[in-house]
Amino acid sequence: MAELVVRHLGLADYLPTLEAMRRFTAERDASSPDEIWLLQHPRVFTQGQAGKPEHLLAPGDIPVIQVERGGQVTYHGPGQLVAYLMLDLRRRKLGVRELVTAMELALVDVLAGYGIEAAPKADAPGVYVNGDKIASLGLRVRNGCSFHGLALNVDMDMAPFLRINPCGYAGLKMVQLKDLLQSPPALDEVAQRLERALRERLGYV
Fold this sequence. Notes:
alpha+beta, globular
């Protein structure tokens, strides 16, 4: 079975990370290990390939970057845990829908570990708590290999979400772990739990 390399990258600028992810995907071959990168980004809006400009309400001083992942506009910032999944789906015999389901269930597992009941929605990728969105997903597959990934709101400034229609949904309320727990966990701890959950749901254990 192909190995999985997990990198904990801390706070990393968005554009250099995006370029590194694209380069890794373009240059990999059948023997390249799969990788998951866990990190945070400085404040940035990213607009997916189907993104509509009207969902950017008032970006202001926060940069907007066009990307090739699926989905609409979302926000990344410090205190949000981002996971980029660079997997050879053909080698693992995984369909895109199966990958999305595994990512969503891994997030549900992590939240359950904190006593939070969460669930995906069939018609709107991501993970929700009482109808409010706590995690977003956006993927791209090229030559049978995935890149981009997911973002889980942990302990961040949520105000920039009010400058957009998150994921293209006007009025969608975004929540974070900090709002649902008496004492929010450290982001590094959440990252370790997410790594374990992804390994289990994707069969890398």
